[in-house]
Amino acid sequence: MRALLALALLGCTDASLYHLREAPIEADRVAVRGRVCTEDPDAARFPLKLVLVVDHAAGPLFSAYDPGGQRIPLLQSLVRSALARPGVSLAVVGYASQGVRFAPAPDEGPFTRNPGPLLAAITRLALPGGCLGADQCRDHDDGLRAAEGLIEDDLARTPAGERVRTQYVVLFVNAGEASPLARRRDCCASGDRACLAAGDAPDAACQLDRDVARVAGLGATVAAAGASFRLHALHLAAAPAEEADRVARTMDRMAFAGAGRSLRFEAVTGVDLTDLALFDREGALRAQRLVVANINALPGPAGPVPDSDGDGLSDEDEGDLGTAPDRADTDGDGVGDRVELLAGLDPQVPELPGVCRPLADPAGDADRDGLTDCDEALLGTDRSLPDTDGDGLVDRLEVALGTDYLHAEGVVDDDGDGVSNADEVRERTDPQSVDAAARLGRAYRYDVVDEGVVVEPVAPALERVAGVDILQVSAGTTAGVGRLRFVPGAPAGLQWQDAGDAAPGPLVEVPRDGDYLLPGASYAPLQGDDGPFLRVRVRLAEAPPAEASEAVRVLFRARQCLRYTVRNIRLLDTVPAEGRPERGRNDLLLYFTQAPAGRPTAPGALRQALVPVQYLPPATRTPTGAVLEVLDEEFVGVR
To answer: 218 and 361 share a domain?
Structure first.
């Protein structure tokens, strides 16, 4: 009797049913889980554009404060240091009686990494600028206006997808009070007759307000364009004490308005720019949305159907239309089949639409969102932004599922089934049909935990040791400069010296491509992540032919991280398609959208990961696990 009862209980287990915490072991369903964090702007080498706005007005700066011109080599050293950092470009503005763009030349664009014109521009700052009149010798406002013009020009030239990663930094170097000072009338309220009557008197308070307003206005302009902005003030206290104190207050207020720092130096010999941290990229990103999609299983009224080529048309629909279910662009003209139908074009007749003819590569995909540049030109989406409307839903997904890709979805519910379009895209159900009753069985199930902002060690991509990617820096790694060494051979070897160790760790044999743990000399297995080590991925075919080593600067950076499990991802039998020769291929794409800090609804940067799965009915799947682990390092930043 007990044996029969045991068999009965065994037959009633939930091994093949959906479970809240444990993914079922079913060949046609899979779950993914992992941890993903926002990109660190420094490690990702986001663009940083530095404008040096430097006072060279005649007076005490040249005669009493710095007669030997010691500030010039200091600024030249700053330029060299900037150019040694990937992703940093510069411009130089000098101001005396007016602001003048010294470098780069207009035909070079607003910013440059060419050291010649930049260093020559710094040399020009050694010459005092003359006055245009008795009281027109140091025009703060015109210097800032010149910097503003450079930045606005650059914003206009920069695609939206790059702007969101760009940080503009202004270093405002000043040696004295504005001359001429603003007049009182410049700051009068409208209708204040008493103020206007006394309006010609110079007014230091009004000048301060105008300088601060210009900085705040420039910051607002940059933010509205999707980029980030800081202004630092470097006060060379060359003026008499009372004037220098007034200037210091102005510099403090300007730096505060520009979210930067203000430093004052009484003597040129004490000038040190370290505390300004000019090259620390502070354009922090915040997690917006995680969306998982099986690109080859298109949701429909009766459940998911195969979309072998991932073009947003089911294989059945392609058969009815006469298009190829194994080619996303049947006629090869650079426009996907679904987009051609949306645009009223014939997907079987090659034709380059007029809006696509100016494009350098109509069939290219600049933002890597799965839509060609020509697709995006026809649709009106931004080919530099994977998520044009900033709602956290990548354009490709919205186009395929028929939602509004130009305006944030919010709580719009096109099919009136009580589930918003945004949730249907995220859960991979059909936003165009009433499927609420079947939602429990069809919808992807998300379990996402926001870990908040986490301080973790990061390392930049390697430059000299090719074929090696740093996947993980352990929590116990020492901040500072370590060294990675590659030794060719059969087998090859890798060695890591932590910044806190006096000697390198053991040489780790690398007989084949794969992932390897490189311990530091002080690492012991019982330490776990609290010991110093790197985890790397090696591609031997790309590795250096001779021994090579590289200094690796480990920093601790704050990133927002999500821990997630997404279940009930349905797999379907698909036909071999272009670029995917195997039958049953299901590409699971994980999209992690990020928004600029403080602007959660702005279109931002994207990280995405690809998990290929092969499913052959009824019971064969590769990989076989019920839950597939995805590392943070497998997410690739789109830029």
So the answer is: no
Q: What is the arithmetic mean of pLDDT over 429-449?
A: 87
User: Is position 10 within any domain?
Assistant: no
Residue 618, classified by CB atoms within 10 Å of its CB into exposed (0-12), middle (13-18) or buried (19+), is exposed
**Residue 4 located in a structural domain:** no
Q: Examine residue 625 and state whether it is found in any structural domain, yes or no.
A: yes
Please give the structure tokens belonging to residue 585. Answer: 């291929």
CA distance 252 to 263: 8
Percent of the chain with pLDDT over 70: 94
| 471 and 544 within one domain | yes
The verdict on 161 and 132 lying in the same domain is: yes
* DSSP assigned state of 64: I
Residue 29 domain-assigned?
no
- Can you say how many angstroms the Cα of residue 299 is from the centroid of all Cα atoms in its chain? 31
Query: Are 277 and 300 in a shared domain?
Result: no
More confident residue, 42 or 593: 593
pLDDT digit string (tens) for 285-309?
A: 889 999 999 999 999 888 999 999 9
- Locus of tokens 């194994």: 326
- Distance between CA atoms of residues 15 and 29, nearest Å: 13
- The closest of 190, 203, 199, 217 to 250, measured between CA atoms, is 203
Parent domain of 482:
453-559
- Of 526, 559, 592, the residue at which a domain comes to its end is 559
Residue at a domain's end among 260, 283, 306: 283
Nearest alpha-carbon partner for 584 in 329, 291, 294: 294
Q: How many domains does the chain have?
A: 3
* φ, ψ of residue 289 in degrees (nearest 5): -155, 145
Q: Are residues 433 and 467 in the same domain?
A: no
Closest by Cα among 42, 50, 639 to 281: 42
Indicate whether 470 and 374 sit together in one domain: no
Whole-structure pTM value: 0.75
Angle made by CA atoms 29, 33, 39, in degrees to the nearest 5: 135
Confidence of residue 282 (pLDDT cuts 50, 70, 90): low
Residue 374: C-alpha distances to residues 59, 113, 329, 368, 403 (Å): 58, 32, 12, 13, 20
Whole-number Å distance between alpha carbons of 2 and 561: 50
Whether residue 424 sits in one domain with residue 277: no
- Of 395, 405, 349, nearest to 372 by C-alpha is 395
DSSP three-state, residue 204: helix
Is beta strand 585-596 parallel, antiparallel or unpaired with respect to 606-616? Answer: antiparallel
Find out whether 607 and 635 touch, Cβ atoms under 8 Å.
Answer: yes
**pLDDT class for 539, splitting at 50, 70, 90?**
very high
